[in-house]
Every structure is written in C-alpha cells, then in structure tokens.
Design brief:
259 residues, alpha+beta, Outer membrane lipoprotein wza fold like, wza like fold, three-stranded antiparallel β-sheet, 7 helices, Poly_export_N, membrane, transmembrane
Length: 259
C-alpha cells in the first residue's frame, strides 16, 4: 500500500509542471473583433500633425516661377558628392535649436518650434512674399524616427521617410513581438513641450485602433514589456524547462507502468 501511495505522489509531482505549462495566453491581435468574415466600419481617428520641436532636423526648400530668385533661399550642401546620407542631411537640414529657432538664408533667425509643418510652411511663405513673386515652400523631417524596444525580434531605432507610422507598422518593422511580449501592456512614451506622456495600449483589444496614441509621433518610444516567465528565466526559458519535464514525466509513467 505504501508503495502505491509513493508512486501516486511521484506521478502527481511530475505532472504538476505540465499542468502549469498548459496555461494559455492570448497571443492574437484585436481578439474582440469576433468571427465576422467581413467587417466595415468608419475610420474616425486621424493622425495628429507632428509639432516641430527642439532637435528636429528639417529639410526646407523654396521654389518660385523665377528659379534664380529662389536660389539664395535654399541651403546648398557643400558635400553633395558624399555617399554618406547622414553627412549630406546634416548639411542640408535646418536644426531647430533649444528656443525653437532656425537660421534661414536672408530671412535670418525664425521661430518655428511649436508649430506644425503646415503652420511653419505658411509662416515662411508669408515672409518670402516680400522677396519672391509666388514662393512655394516644402518642409520635410530628416530625423523622423521611432524606437521599438523590449520583447520584439529586432529592437532598434527606425527612420520613417513617410512621416506617418502607426503602432502596428512600428512593431512590424521590429519583427513583431516574441512569444514573451506582454500584448496587453504596450507602452508608448512621448516627450513634447517639456511634458512626458506614457500611454498603455492593449493589442488584444480592437479599441487601440481608435486610441490617440495609435499613430506615433516623431521620437516616440515603443516598449514591449516581457511576461513573468521571461523575467524569471535564467539560462533556459520556462517553456524549454516544461518540455524537458514533460518528457521526463512521460518516461516516468512508462517506467512505473512496467514495474
């Protein structure tokens, strides 16, 4: 009788890791959309226009019906033959200083910090009408970037040439979440006008598509927190340990049945 009890205790002890390893996590995105084969809904969220801030590097070009008249208002790179794009951009771009000011040819120091690109474009156009007949201004970010860190396959800082990116696109650029990424707690860290904002989004919930933080702003940081299993692992992941214990459990049951 004692032998039977000991065998039963051994089996229960061995099977416990298997029971805990079977706990399920929701690894899907937008899980509460349901099983509809086709779903159509109005898009109410529009991306916020980025605000020009200290440290932004802008490419500003001026054109006019008279190209010769517009030429003095365009900064010409002194190293146009360089193959290093970062070097070319740093010379062609206008760096916004700590006071939100840029040094513009002929016009001098102009404050554009705190404005959207559209507002800055209008301000420059109004100033240029004193010199040109029909000035047209184009503004682009040269350092529009976002950073994705944490439990993703390829954490990095990414340049965004399109100047528009949402959370899902950013995660895609970083290779998507690993199985250890906590999908219900994605942090978006934004700093603007001396204020830091940390928003938490749940990838399991379709409501993130309407979140004001779904579209990322320049220099945003996306952080994917690891689940507890990832935090607790040392040299082996918990899943690998569970697999090994599962094999041991199965082998032990076979041995006990033959005794």
């Amino acid at each position: 009788m004692k032998s039977v009890i000991n065998k039963r205790n051994i089996i229960i002890f061995i099977l416990l890791p298997l029971i805990f390893s079977c706990s399920r996590r929701n690894l899907g995105y937008f899980s509460n959309y349901g099983d509809e084969k086709l779903l159509t809904e109005d898009i109410t969220l529009k991306p916020k226009q980025p605000i020009i801030q200290t440290g932004d590097l802008l490419q500003i070009s001026v054109t006019d019906a008279n190209p010769a008249a517009a030429a003095p208002f365009n900064r010409i790179s002194s190293n146009t033959t360089s193959t290093n794009s970062a070097s070319v951009n740093s010379q062609e771009g206008y760096l916004v200083d700590e006071n939100g000011i840029i040094d513009f040819p002929i016009l001098g120091r102009i404050k554009i910090g705190g404005q959207t690109k559209a507002e800055a474009k209008l301000s420059l156009t109004n100033l240029l009408t004193n010199y040109l007949g029909n000035p047209m201004v184009s503004i682009r970010y040269l350092n529009y970037r976002i950073t994705v860190l944490g439990e993703v396959r390829s954490p990095s800082t990414f340049l965004v040439p399109s100047e528009r990116i949402n959370l899902i696109e950013a995660l895609g650029m970083a290779g998507d979440l690993t199985i250890y990424g906590k999908r219900e707690n994605i942090k978006i860290i934004n700093e603007a006008n001396g204020v830091r904002t940390v928003a938490q989004l749940d990838l399991n919930d379709k409501a993130i598509l309407d979140s004001p933080y779904y579209y990322l702003q320049p220099n945003d940081i996306v952080y994917v927190e690891p689940v507890t299993a990832r935090k607790d692992q040392s040299s082996l992941t918990r899943s690998n340990i569970s697999l090994v214990l599962g094999i041991i459990s199965a082998a032990s049951l076979v041995i006990l049945n033959f005794r």
